[in-house]
């Protein structure tokens, strides 16, 4: 489907919208600065230090320090309340999820754990003995297995001719039935 607006018209409209948004953004920043200055001028009286003696300046500094301490205490109290509220909100969210019963289970991965590591996890750091499971396995001699199976060497063509047809199937069936195998 073709658009009713051409690409150049779209680009022009987009650039006009961005220019208008930038103007509004700049105006908003100026308004915030003016509001901040107005608020500070209402709350804070101008500081006149000219013509004051040394003792009067020291008294003024002490008053300012006391005010700073009071504001700092209030800030600390508010911060502590905020942290307490965020912790409480987090706990309540967890409780809601538990009550609903629908919470995401994390995907579990298979982890290979050795016997020593498993015993260490179960018994704690008290476990010092290493457990070698391979030491208890029965050893098998390779020579014995080779002696048990004698290798027949013969003409393979005779064997194929003998086993072909129904007679060969009967011989194989009889060979499987016999206790010696051949």
From TrEMBL:
The organism's place on the tree of life at top rank: Eukaryota
A single BP term in Gene Ontology: cardiac muscle contraction
UniProt keyword list: Acetylation, Actin-binding, Coiled coil, Muscle protein
Keyword Nucleotide-binding among record annotations: no
A GO CC term attached to the entry: troponin complex
GO molecular function annotation: actin binding
This protein's record includes keyword Coiled coil: yes
Coiled coil: 22-74
Any Pfam family: Troponin
SUPFAM superfamilies (alphabetical): Troponin coil-coiled subunits
Function in brief: Troponin I is the inhibitory subunit of troponin, the thin filament regulatory complex which confers calcium-sensitivity to striated muscle actomyosin ATPase activity.
Protein family (similarity comment): Belongs to the troponin I family.
Subunit-structure text: Binds to actin and tropomyosin.
Protein name per UniProt: Troponin I, fast skeletal muscle
Organism for this UniProt entry: Oreotrochilus melanogaster
Lineage: Eukaryota, Metazoa, Chordata, Craniata, Vertebrata
Gene behind this protein: Tnni1
């Amino acid at each position: 489907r073709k658009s009713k607006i051409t690409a150049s018209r779209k680009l022009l409209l987009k650039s006009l919208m961005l220019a208008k948004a930038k103007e509004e953004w700049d105006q908003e920043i100026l308004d915030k600065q003016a509001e901040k200055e107005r608020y500070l001028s209402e709350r804070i009286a101008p500081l006149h230090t000219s013509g004051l003696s040394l003792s009067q300046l020291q008294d003024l500094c002490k008053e300012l320090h006391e005010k700073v301490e009071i504001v700092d205490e209030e800030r600390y109290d508010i911060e502590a309340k905020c942290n307490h509220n965020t912790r409480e909100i987090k706990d309540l969210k967890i409780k809601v999820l538990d009550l609903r019963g629908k919470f995401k289970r994390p995907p579990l991965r298979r982890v290979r754990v050795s016997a020593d590591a498993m015993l260490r996890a179960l018994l704690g750091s008290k476990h010092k003995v290493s457990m070698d499971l391979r030491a208890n396995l029965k050893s098998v001699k390779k020579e014995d297995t080779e002696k048990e199976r004698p290798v027949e060497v013969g003409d393979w063509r005779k064997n194929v001719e003998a086993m072909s047809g129904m007679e060969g199937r009967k011989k194989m069936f009889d060979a499987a039935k016999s206790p010696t195998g051949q």
